[in-house]
């Protein structure tokens, strides 16, 4: 047998290292792109709240319509039958719409920074739900990470209740509780999506989520927000945040699965975490507000907790828990989806 060509092996190794380097850089770039999208949705919601516009369901409607049209068109072109019963998608649509409604509503009461930080509450909720219902096994490190994350969330609430700066919102405690409730609904939505994506595919999930999300949103708007929509003066200052929110959410839903395929959910979670710092920068430079020092302590605690729970050991398996689904291949890929729509 001829000896191996060391030069060829070295060249292959170098090419492999370069490929990994390119993939890592691409994953980092897309991660920051998604992080900015999350911040953009928060900025748009905050701007609408500052203008006295209170129509959270209407903000999400256009996003669901875009999802239904874009991915529904692909689904119709493929002419594939549904792999999941339609009523499961209806339940998922209701949960997702209400999660978006509650979190967007919270901008009426608390600050942008608080919403961005407290939205991380969905991560420990996802861990608990997947552990109980999907029988996912987690090590001690992940539960320690949840504990540290909860400490950071408590610090945020403490800061909003006791700080003298009322620019945080008219009722910070109420807003914080809204965000926590919305994050719990996001967690339920994410775990349901994890279950669906393993039995279906991303295109079907996004198309049906968009369809039923649009239907549920339309019904809710007709009941709760008709008077609000009629009272809005549709100037450019009101239209642009509406459109910007929908486009950012659509791009977020569409980009997350790509990141999961390239570099996995751990990189995605850490990238999404930087949206909190983007929110702080917006609050400082766009709103000219002072940020309480407790926010930075809370951010550090939340970041430390998420890094601790996201760290993947050699004998651990990543699970799914993010909003947009992991793969197009009927559950062949088992990426982790954790956490944001969020939308906020």
Automatic annotation (TrEMBL):
Q: Could you tell me the membrane topology recorded for this protein?
A: Multi-pass membrane protein
List compositional bias (Basic and acidic residues) regions by residue number: 327-344
Task: Cite the residue spans of the region called Disordered.
Answer: 320-344
Please state which protein family the record places this protein in: Belongs to the SLC35F solute transporter family.
Task: Report TM segments.
Answer: 25-49, 61-77, 86-103, 115-134, 143-163, 205-223, 238-260, 267-287, 293-311
| GO MF term set | transmembrane transporter activity
Per the record, what is one GO cellular component?
Answer: membrane
Q: Name one Pfam family in it.
A: SLC35F
Task: State where it is primarily located.
Answer: membrane
The protein in question is named Solute carrier family 35 member F1
Localization recorded for this chain is: Membrane
Record carries keyword Transport: yes
Q: Does the keyword Translocase apply?
A: no
Q: Which organism was this protein described from?
A: Sorghum bicolor
Alphabetically list the UniProt keywords: Membrane, Transmembrane, Transmembrane helix, Transport
């Amino acid at each position: 047998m001829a000896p191996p060509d060391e030069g060829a092996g070295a060249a292959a190794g170098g090419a492999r290292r370069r490929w990994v380097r390119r993939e890592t850089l691409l994953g980092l770039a897309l991660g920051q792109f998604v992080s900015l999208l999350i911040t953009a949705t928060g900025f748009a919601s905050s701007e609408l709240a500052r203008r006295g516009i209170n129509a959270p369901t209407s903000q999400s409607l256009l996003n669901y319509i875009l999802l239904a049209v874009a991915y529904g068109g692909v689904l119709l072109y493929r002419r594939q039958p549904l792999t999941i019963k339609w009523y499961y998608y209806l339940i998922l649509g209701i949960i997702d719409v209400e999660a978006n409604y509650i979190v967007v509503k919270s901008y009426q009461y608390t600050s942008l920074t608080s919403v961005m930080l407290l939205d991380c509450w969905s991560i420990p909720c996802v861990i608990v739900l997947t552990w109980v219902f999907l029988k996912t096994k987690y090590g001690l490190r992940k539960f320690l990470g949840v504990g540290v994350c909860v400490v950071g969330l408590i610090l945020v609430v403490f800061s909003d209740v006791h700080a003298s700066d009322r620019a945080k919102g008219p009722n910070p405690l109420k807003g914080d509780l809204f965000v926590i409730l919305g994050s719990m609904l996001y967690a339920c939505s994410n775990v349901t999506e994890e279950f669906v994506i393993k039995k279906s595919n991303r295109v079907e999930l996004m198309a049906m989520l968009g369809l039923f999300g649009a239907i549920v949103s339309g019904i809710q708007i007709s009941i709760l927000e008709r008077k609000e929509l009629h009272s809005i003066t549709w100037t450019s200052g009101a239209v642009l945040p509406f459109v910007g929110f929908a486009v950012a959410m659509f791009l977020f839903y569409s980009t997350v699965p790509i990141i999961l395929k390239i570099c996995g959910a751990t990189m995605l979670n850490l990238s999404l975490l930087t949206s909190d710092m983007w929110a702080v920068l917006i609050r400082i430079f766009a709103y000219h507000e002072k940020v309480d020092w407790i926010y930075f302590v809370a951010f550090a605690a939340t970041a430390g907790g998420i890094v601790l729970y996201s760290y993947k050991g050699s004998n651990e398996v990543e699970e799914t828990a993010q909003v947009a689904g992991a793969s197009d291949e009927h559950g062949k890929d088992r990426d982790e989806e954790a956490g944001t729509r969020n939308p906020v």
